[in-house]
Design a protein that fits this description.
Layout: E1 3-7, H1 18-21, H2 33-36, H3 44-57, H4 62-69, H5 78-87, E2 92-101, H6 102-111, E3 120-124, E4 126-128, E5 134-136, H7 153-166, E6 173-178, H8 184-189, E7 195-198, H9 203-213, E8 221-222, H10 228-240
Parallel strand pairs: 1-2, 1-6, 2-3, 6-7, 7-8
Antiparallel strand pairs: 4-5
Helix pairs in contact: 5-10
GO molecular function, one term: phosphatase activity
Cofactor: Mg(2+)
Binding site for substrate: 19, 99
Length: 241
């Protein structure tokens, strides 16, 4: 009996968006209007690439970025939840699928000593160039019309499940924990026995209820959470069964 926990990162594990938090490093903690207005829907990764160039041009170095990122607060109850999962790793496999990037997630998880809780992190690859600029790339290419160009979370989840099956690992239940519009695609992929846990008041919860109103509800069960303590309560019930 093993359960798979799939977490989004921004506004789910942490209570902010890591990509917008980095702007605190910019001169006067803001971006010029031209740069801010250059974002085009579905092309967030390219936009962040330009943000990182701007920060680099203004002399913002890796250590300053790291200091800033590790001050992001975790979502209410999340530290307790991740501690609980860490103590019960024999029952839970745990992955992150996020539109953030490898550098930010790595910094934040390691600073709080939570990197061992997660078996794998799937996010946009990032690295510092020889000139000290942070660069970010698309996670993969895909053909899903519902998802942003750089990442289809369903494709990630399917590939992970296939790889696990090859290793002889299958899951009693998948629990998907997220908040955003790009979490809807993988939630629609979940089966009847699985659970979607959208964060209360965020886009994912609204999209799921719109689907239910238009009589095309998701197949899985839906449990809304506002604090990660709600998620922990569910997991405790699950392992008692």
């Amino acid at each position: 009996m093993k359960f798979l926990l799939v977490f989004d990162f921004d506004h789910t594990i942490i209570d902010e968006n890591s990509d917008t938090w980095i702007v605190k490093c910019a001169p006067e903690r803001k971006l010029p209007n031209g740069l801010r207005n250059s974002y085009q829907p579905g092309h967030w990764t390219e936009y962040m690439g330009r943000v990182f160039v701007y920060l680099g041009d203004n002399g913002v170095k890796e250590d300053e970025m790291k200091r800033t990122m590790t001050t992001i607060p975790f979502t209410a109850g999340m530290i307790d939840l991740l501690g609980f999962i860490g103590e019960n790793k024999e029952l839970f496999d745990c992955i992150i699928v996020s539109d953030s990037n490898t550098v930010f997630i790595d910094w934040i998880l390691k600073a709080a000593d939570f990197h061992k809780v997660f078996d794998e992190v799937f996010t946009n690859p990032a690295a510092f160039s020889s000139t000290g600029y942070l660069t970010v790339q698309h996670f993969h290419a895909h053909h899903c019309a519902k998802c942003p160009k750089n990442l289809c979370k369903t494709k990630v989840l399917k590939e992970f499940l296939d790889k696990q099956l090859e290793r002889g690992v299958s899951y009693t239940q998948i629990i998907y924990i997220g908040d955003g519009g790009n979490d809807l695609c993988p939630v629609m992929f979940l089966k009847k026995n699985d659970i979607a846990m959208p964060r209360q008041g965020y886009t994912l919860e609204k999209r799921i209820s719109q689907l239910a109103q238009s009589l095309s509800p998701v197949q899985c069960s839906v449990l809304v959470w506002s604090s990660a303590v709600d998620i922990m309560s569910y997991l405790k019930l699950l392992i008692k069964k």
